[in-house]
Amino acid sequence: MMNEKDKKLISGFLSDKLSREEKAEFLKKASTDKAFIKEIVREIELDDAINEKLGINQEEKD
Amino acid sequence: MVKIYVLQHCGSMEDVEDTLQDGLYKFMKFYEKNGFDQVDKLENYIFSICKNSWLKELEKRQKIKQSGKFIVEELEDDRFALKEKYRKEALLDIIENNIELLSNKCQEVLNYRRNGLTCNEIAELLNLKNGQIAKDKHYRCKERLRELIKKDKAYRDIINDE
To answer: What's the ipTM?
Structure first.
């Protein structure tokens, strides 16, 4: 089970809202923790599927 | 970007995870040694590392396949692609079911947007002050939808089945 801090790091990364320090923390964690990477991929997959269903394309997201 | 690239180039979800982790690990090694000032280009930089890493892996697999020893692996790939297809369809169904659990207002906003209306047009239809408020509402509804999906047993079954 992912802890709250890690969840915040992942959602911050996906919405591009991490500070420089948080980005470094995120990268360090992601480069060593398989469960963390699994969660990131899962979140991206869910986000892509929701966007597809809601008809949101990349341009709109940006 | 990495996920799309790997999946479009013969990879599986597991390959996505491995490639991403491998790329990030290589980046961390580089970062510890040299530092990295171009934070703006971080995503592109990591993508390049992951892309190269995946191309090398593909090349390696291709060599193994050419030796004729791993026909079974190809069959496994087809089976995996089929499984991924069903998984995606199931996920889209779950999302549709959860949209129906949202408030009527949220469903309205999401449907207007889905049908191509701009935020300003939605604001006008819903008597909201301006397009920005409609945009914020759309974002909050999407987040609410995400929360609902994560609590849905059907979704948890899908991710536990990985």
So the answer is: 0.75
